[in-house]
Amino acid sequence: MIIDPWGSQKYEYEKLFEDFGIKKFEEELWKDLPRPPFFFRRKIVFGHRDFERIKDAIKNGKPWALLTGLMPSGKMHFGHKIVIDQAIYYQSIGADVNIAVADIEAYATRGYSLKEAERIAIDEYILNYIALGLKPCRIYFQSKNEDVKDLAYLLAKKANLSEVNAIYGFKGSTNMAHVFAPFVQTGDILHVQMEKYSGLCPTLVPVGVDQDPHIRFCRDLADAHRFYSIIPQDEKIGVFVKGDEKVKELLDEAEEAIKKHGEIIERKDDYKAIYARVDDIFSLDYELAKIERSHGGYGFILPSSTYHRFISGLDGNKMSSSRPQYALFLTDTPQEAKKKIWAAKTGGAMTAEEQRKHGGKPEECIIYELFTYGILEDDKELQDIYSRCKGGDLLCGECKKLAYQLIEQFLISLKEKRENARDMLKEYIS
Ligand code: TRP
Ligand code: SF4
Q1: Whose CA is nearest to atom 8 of ligand 1?
Q2: Do 250 and 200 reside in the same domain of the chain?
Q3: Which residues pair with residue 204 across a beta bridge?
């Protein structure tokens, strides 16, 4: 299996854990974060890489950054909202938020001009982000950021064609701008750690699971440019110098850093290694990255990521702007939304009588799914709908009406906020 970030497949989430080494986003990770939001409580965010590092930063009041990206194509729908819900939450607990407008990617892979991409990004996405409650942060366009593009090019030195093809399965006919898009995304993710942006700090990239190939690729590239590697071995760790230059100096400096965080067991210069016991690997990694920077290296900390489930379309397949009748857009009028909700696939029985007798199937119901994706904030109310549906006390008509009312209120208030958002654009776009 290969994950295609530009395709439209549905995912067996369980397989992703085994096949790609994505870790489960267990309750342990989020339960003592401030005000756990619905996307944690309802397991919409289901997987991660290295979220522990972000948690450590949050717990210890260390600076950290968030970077995510938007593809300016089509209209913004409820499936796109989940990543902004996350950005808003993390912003409220201290993340320095950066958002990439993937205009180069839209140009390379979807055939948009940069001009069109800009208009879509602003009108369809950024205005909605502001309306949803994102506070001023840094939103930039890939095509306008020289650091992103330089990094894309320079980091590319340590990836070769076979590696790229093994991940993405490009064909001989794939255009080269498309082939280069993952490098630009790597530039997006890592440039925030440059001194002129967020600086050296843990970086979280919350994305849909289709983006995992880019995350893996980016982490590998960041790692390939590191001077040191830290390898955990049972109770201890090995710190290795990877290259052949300045080995003694780098080992000396690593030794100093390690002493601050634990104790040295053994230094073996001929192995370019120091074995040690440390209590705080994240801090050590940070110190080592700093040393690398002082020697002219990039010293990027490997980015962390989280993965969320995709919301279904109203017919049960993927929600996508290319199938507008089954997608709920943030710019839909209440009338449009009403029509679509009324036609949505539910987990109801064929007849009301049957449903009263045997109950419905909320786990197969798109209306219920909409509730879980934040339309309904309150867990008790959600639980109540679940059990009343199961017990046959709640019928789909009533349930759809409730969904519609909530969505109607939401759409009306969002539209109002969107109208004021245009004046605020300059506080966001750099
Ligand atoms: N490739 C992403 C998409 O298709 C957009 C994107 C560009 C992105 N750069 C990013 C996402 C950096 C996360 C981080 O939606
Ligand atoms: Fe879905 Fe509500 Fe019908 Fe149950 S009653 S199947 S939750 S629409």
Answers
A1: 69
A2: no
A3: 66, 304
User: Which residues line the pocket of ligand 1, CB cutoff 6 A?
Assistant: 5, 67-69, 71, 100, 102, 105, 185, 188-189, 205, 207, 211
User: Domain containing 144 — which CATH number?
Assistant: 3.40.50.620
**CA distance linking residue 396 with residue 179, whole number of Å:** 47
pLDDT in tens, 56-88: 999 999 999 999 999 999 999 999 999 999 999
Ligand 2 neighbourhood includes 399 CB (under 6 angstroms): yes
Ligand 1 geometric centre to CA of 390 (Å): 39
What pLDDT digit, counting tens, does each position of 330-342 carry? 999 999 999 999 9
Structure tokens at 253: 């400096």
In a domain, 25, yes or no: yes
Alpha-carbon distance of 417 to 133, in angstroms, equals 9
Would you say residue 345 has pLDDT above 90?
A: yes
Instruction: Indicate the range of 4-13, 80-89, 91-100 predicted with least confidence.
Output: 4-13
DSSP states of 153-221: HHHGGG--HHHHHHHH---TTS-HHHHHHHHHHHHHHHHTTSTTTT-SS-EEEEEEGGGHHHHHHHHHH
38 and 151 inside one domain? yes
Distance 197 CA to ligand 2 centre (A): 47
Distance 319 CA to ligand 2 centre (A): 19
pLDDT beyond 90 at 91? yes
Q: Residue 13: what pLDDT?
A: 83
0.85 exceeded by pTM: yes
Distance 429 CA to ligand 1 centre (A): 17
